Amino acid sequence: MSVFVIGYYAALIAASCLAAYFNYRRTFMLLFSLTLVSFVLGIIGGTPALRVVTIFAGALALAVGTSYAFKEFLVQIARPNLAKELRTAPLTASFGMFVIFTYAIAGIFAPVIAPHGEAEVIASAFAPPDANMLLGADQLGRDVFSRIIYGARNTVGLALTATILAFLMGALAGLLAAVKGGWFDQIMGRAADVIMSVPSLIFALLMLSIFGTSLVVIVIVVAVIYSPRVFRLTRAVAGNIVVMDYIEAAKLRGEGDWYLIRREILPNSMSPLIAEFGLEFCFVFLLIAGLSFLGLGIQPPTADWGSMVRENATLISFGDITPLIPAAAIALLTVAVNFVVDWMLFRSSGLKEH
Amino acid sequence: MTKFSDKDILLEIKDLRIQGYSDETWVDIIKGVDLTLHRGEVMGLIGESGAGKSTIGAAAMGYARDGTRICEGSSIEFDGMELTTATESERRALRGSRIAYVAQSAAASFNPAHRIIDQHTEAPVHYRIKKRLEAQEDAMELYERLRLPNPQEIGFRYPHQVSGGQLQRAMTAMAMSCRPDLIIFDEPTTALDVTTQIEVLAAIRDIVDQFNTAAIYITHDLAVVAQMADTIKVLLKGEEVEQASTEEMLDNPQEDYTKSLWAVRSFKRKQKSRPTDGTEPLISVQNVHAAYTGGVKVLDDVSFDIYPGMTVAVVGESGSGKSTTARVITGLLPPMEGQVLFKGEPLPPKYTDRTRDQLRQAQMIYQMADTALNPKVKIHEIIGRPAQFYSGLKGTALKQRVDELLDLIELEPSQYYNRYPPELSGGQKQRIGIARALAAEPEFIICDEVTSALDQLVAEGILRLLDRLQRELGLAYMFITHDLATVRSIADEVVVMQNGKVVEQGPKDEMFRPPHHPYTDLLLSSVPEMDPNWLTELLEERGLDNIGEAATSKGDAAPST
């Protein structure tokens, strides 16, 4: 029995006893069941299995600690109103915000952070990690770590632009349709139906093969594909607002459509729209990554997470996890954005915790 | 008090304290209330909104709403069982079987996807008191006792297929389904018309009598509680003001607050008569017929005049076309036939075709201040926008005008200038709505049920304010209401509407003096009075089968005596 194993069980049992003594029922149940599971795990997997458990627990604790500290940091620097909201945010949300913050830093300062250029060939193909290359080299001998950092800028930047464009188009059309009603509403609604009836990936492939794969085309095509969803949501939200008495009062005052949209409707429909923005961003991001994987997205040698997965896909059969790293980067961002969106949806739905 | 002996205590609440969570701290909502209820006793809880009436009602079931908690040291003893320490499942077993609850809006409380009788039988079947068929038969019997029309069949309809008053009675029947010892009525008639209210009140009173059920009757309408309750408890801001038997409370209230509640309906202003010097009416509605798209006619040949500086009250129950008339005048619903004249000039039928000045002249104040004010816009912009829009005021001139308007509605400008509507109380919101209408400097304001969502004290304040503004600014009001007490206090002329037709109109003093049109008579006699025997006498006079909806439908044919 190594010192590690003895320490491992001693720590677990001591923590369980403390939890039981201070009446934290759920913490106790969690810790003690982990102790029992560890007995079995220790017998089957030996010390390495227990080490994995420890590392997982440590990583989790690190994430929790970071999220907590980050939340406190945000509360400190935010304005009083915002700070009050932030204080009620769950840890998952602040974890999400922390990850998004990290990605934003990586994207903005990519040339400073990345040790090599994104198209720079510095080693032999599939060179293993060393002091110079943190994650090894890809199929052409470029530094995978640098390409991931640059990918944050390219893929996320592109997805963000496309989502913003989709929102501008969809939200504007939806608000106008709700305010004007009548034939304008009908035409916009049917147009949205037509776009939504074509499967998005096929529609994107079709458009990209017709118009080429320049960045502008990708952004516009993706924005057009996703704007009908935004249109429908905005129209539904605004539809509930235009029947309110204050809209009637404004109409009777003789206000124009633009004033109604800007001052009366938009402030009241912001929270569902922001939540939807986060959700749509994930879908757009995944679509762009998927297009790159198929070779129709961002073109080489520009670093992009989707195409990085495809280019290094062969490595997976050799048990190497390199192709999984950009995939994990995509997954982490998606999860992080969803954490934040969940919190916003919770807030805008007006549910209160018991 | 003498009617009930101490042995028969059913519910005893001692030192009840309830806290609510807001702004990250726990705030006291109920500050130590005691309550003793005997078997068969009906207790009326009255007070303005925020007084904690409903919270106490819920606490009587051992229930604290989301975001509230019952504090340590409170005791709620129901028939020898302490509810504050009972487990959730023990408390749940009481609810529905021994304690029942009747909510304010039956329409919102019934599940629209199930038939009424299925919802009725749910509790007795769940508690294994009766088999389903037995429970159904019992339901029909209860429906009959509550004088619902066609009791054998009505339960098999869905909630949206019966009227509001019938649904409220069906809900009372549902509360009786397990023959509970205690029923909590939470404002069961507040949402109903006066004519419908009577049948619900009569039904509730009878059934509570027949089964010797104890009840807590929560309301803010004193006249209603006078009909229903044996004892009355007055609450103010979570504290008890006083408690006494109904007769004693009505004849001899002790506390100043109670006296002020009783005196609320005393406000009366002098009645004005039409100018005789040939002044043209400000607004003249002439032979208006109107319908919503593809629907039946809502307005049928409606005509009346409103003279400058006068208040015309338009009364009638819901669905009589009062608000539709307002929509025709404002131009939201263009009439099929007929026209609206403004100072002798015809107004364009659609509001989009009217000039800014025409729009400015006719302003509206809405019933629900919550939906009438944009919750995300600051007060100064809500009030300032019409001034900016119509008069082109900017910068300091605009700020000065907003301050002036806030002064006019008796709100301190510096305190309210930068706040948002949700931060204000109901009465304050309604005042902001009035200020917005005034900001346009109109000559004519339509008040659509402006006081019906407010407590009586607050409503009286609004009525006084409107009266003062009328005197100072020479405004004309069209006052849409179903509350005849409001009409009595503020109107100069009255227009009575039924089914889209004007059945009677004239100066107020004539309208309140017999002989009446039978429908006017029905409306007038249906307004509850502060006399505890009023309902009994009225029922004797009209006969049990001739109240509420039955009376309304007969109103046209049979002339009343």
TrEMBL record, chain A:
InterPro entries from the UniProt entry: BP-dependent_transpt_permease, MetI-like, MetI-like_sf
GO biological process: transmembrane transport
Keyword Repressor annotated: no
Domain ABC transmembrane type-1, first and last residues per copy: 152-345
Keywords: Cell membrane, Membrane, Transmembrane, Transmembrane helix, Transport
Subcellular location: Cell membrane
Transmembrane segments: 6-22, 29-46, 91-114, 156-179, 200-227, 273-298, 324-346
Gene Ontology CC: plasma membrane
Membrane topology, from the record: Multi-pass membrane protein
Record's keyword annotation contains Calcium: no
A Pfam family of this chain: BPD_transp_1
Stored PANTHER family: OLIGOPEPTIDE TRANSPORT SYSTEM PERMEASE PROTEIN APPC (PTHR43386), PEPTIDE ABC TRANSPORTER PERMEASE PROTEIN (PTHR43386:SF25)
Family as reported in the entry's similarity comment: Belongs to the binding-protein-dependent transport system permease family.
Protein name as catalogued: ABC transporter permease
From TrEMBL, chain B:
GO terms of molecular function: ATP binding; ATP hydrolysis activity
Main location: membrane
Subcellular location as annotated: Cell inner membrane
Gene3D superfamilies membership: P-loop containing nucleotide triphosphate hydrolases (3.40.50.300)
SUPFAM superfamilies: P-loop containing nucleoside triphosphate hydrolases
Domain ABC transporter residues, every copy: 11-262, 283-524
Keywords annotated in UniProt: ATP-binding, Cell inner membrane, Cell membrane, Membrane, Nucleotide-binding, Translocase, Transport
GO cellular component: plasma membrane
Alphabetical list of InterPro entries matching this protein: AAA+_ATPase, ABC_Ni/Peptide_Import, ABC_transporter-like_ATP-bd, ABC_transporter-like_CS, Oligopep_ABC_C, P-loop_NTPase
Domain of life: Bacteria
BP GO annotations: peptide transport
Record membrane topology: Peripheral membrane protein
Stated family: Belongs to the ABC transporter superfamily.
Protein name in the entry: ABC transporter ATP-binding protein
